[in-house]
Amino acid sequence: MDFQTxxxxxxxxxxxxTASTFATHGLRVIGVDVDRHVVDVLRNxxxxxxxxxxxxxxxxxxxxxxxxxxxxxxxxxxxxIAVPTPLSEGADKQADLSYVIAASESIVPYIQPGNLVVLExxxxxxxxxxxxxxILERSGLQAGSDFHLAYTPERVLPGQILRELIENARxxxxxxxxxxxxxxxxxxxxxxxxxxxxxxxxxxxxxxxENTYRDINIAVANEFARVADRLGVDIWEAIELANxxxxxxxxxxxxxxxxxxxxxxxxFLVQTAPDLTPITQQARQTNDDQPAYVVNLVNQTLDxxxxxxxxxxxxxxxxxxxxxxxxxxxxxxRLLASEGAKVRTYEPFDPGAVVPxxxxxxxxxxxxxxxxxxxxxxDHQTFRELDPQQVKGMMSGHVAIDTHGVWDRxxxxxxxxxxxxxxxxxxxx
Length: 429
Ligand SMILES: NC(=O)c1ccc[n+]([C@@H]2O[C@H](COP(=O)([O-])OP(=O)(O)OC[C@H]3O[C@@H](n4cnc5c(N)ncnc54)[C@H](O)[C@@H]3O)[C@@H](O)[C@H]2O)c1
Prior knowledge:
Blueprint: E1 5-9, H1 15-24, E2 28-32, H2 36-43, H3 54-63, E3 67-70, E4 78-81, H4 98-107, E5 116-119, H5 127-136, E6 148-151, H6 161-167, E7 170-174, H7 177-187, E8 195-199, H8 200-231, H9 235-242, H10 265-272, H11 278-302, E9 309-313, H12 328-338, E10 342-346, E11 359-360, H13 364-368, E12 373-376, H14 381-384, H15 388-394, E13 399-402, H16 409-414, E14 418-421
Parallel strand pairs: 1-2, 1-4, 2-3, 4-5, 5-6, 7-8, 9-10, 9-12, 10-11, 12-13, 13-14
Antiparallel strand pairs: 6-7
The structure holds nicotinamide-adenine-dinucleotide (NAD).
Nicotinamide-adenine-dinucleotide binds at residues 9-15, 32-35, 38, 82-85, 99, 102-103, 106, 120-122, 154, 156, 158, 260-261.
């Protein structure tokens, strides 16, 4: 199939790079977002999210005239839906498909025979078939016979999105073979990785399996760290030694699992088959409990939390990104504050970010001023490289807690710190 025009719904971490990359590869793209602020920022030549290289790419796409930003869709050869799929409010951990539904409804007036519609939003299995197709068919056109419909999971790594968008292998699942092939023709415009065709439900399941597999493997690393703490074993050394086995690759423990994908997507699998997913559910529970485990570690280290002055470094859900969604670092800071600690947070990618009960600091110096303890919650490069001598000079106490196992123990010791590392013995025994 030949594509000249494309309409991308949702201009966030996924939709904006995708729309811009298609535009810089010659397609005329209309990028749609219902958030007026997002549209205004982009129209002013700015970018509302932090991703290396994205600003330059977006500006190139807009200056070329190939990317136009709007609050409403337009007719196009193809439509890509990249809107959020969070968990619904409430305790039942179900996918909130309201954004996918609204985006699908918004293109009904514009869809024409021969068009391709692709869902990129991470979704429970059968969403393309059971949710998106019936909405689009309100146009009077039949999915499959009148227009193509496909699902493609997005697997890019924040911080590396622009490169991975092009280089990663891409799975494209059609509701029929012709839809999968139409999807391949669209993404082949810029994808240099392998393009693998399958059916829509398999493609939806692939994405959920990938993130569930990661979640379970992080959960077991966190479990190992807890056992190591109790036994007085150094988990970081133990993992390094275990990973010398040719078929073992244990992941790194930490303060928990966050972000818009790994901490959420496993629930989409669980909602589909709760009786068949006990390991998935337990892993979610283990990782969700990890911030409380870290708070307990801090509590024991400081011999109580009430009134203790603590600097919490990092709030993002992982290193070197500005994304705070579902961040375990925020949960640790919030819990410390709720236990009576005086917590000052510093997130270099978003210094204004506010955690309930804690005080945001505009700089590292301001965060560290007069605190008794510093806790590393996110292993941003800038925090990995901290000079312990300088840190010591800025704070009044001498306790440091490393939840990522990245600070050089000898250097922190010789700077006069009492350094405690997650998974290194005895603290939570
Ligand atoms: N961020 C990631 O690293 C990542 C990776 C893989 C998959 N995903 C999946 O991709 C999807 C999008 O995630 P994201 O991180 O880009 O989300 P995001 O929140 O950064 O962006 C989504 C955008 O969609 C807009 N939007 C909401 N409803 C809309 C509608 N009806 N029409 C047009 N725009 C609408 C929002 O205003 C927002 O700007 C999610 O399903 C997510 O799980 C994300």
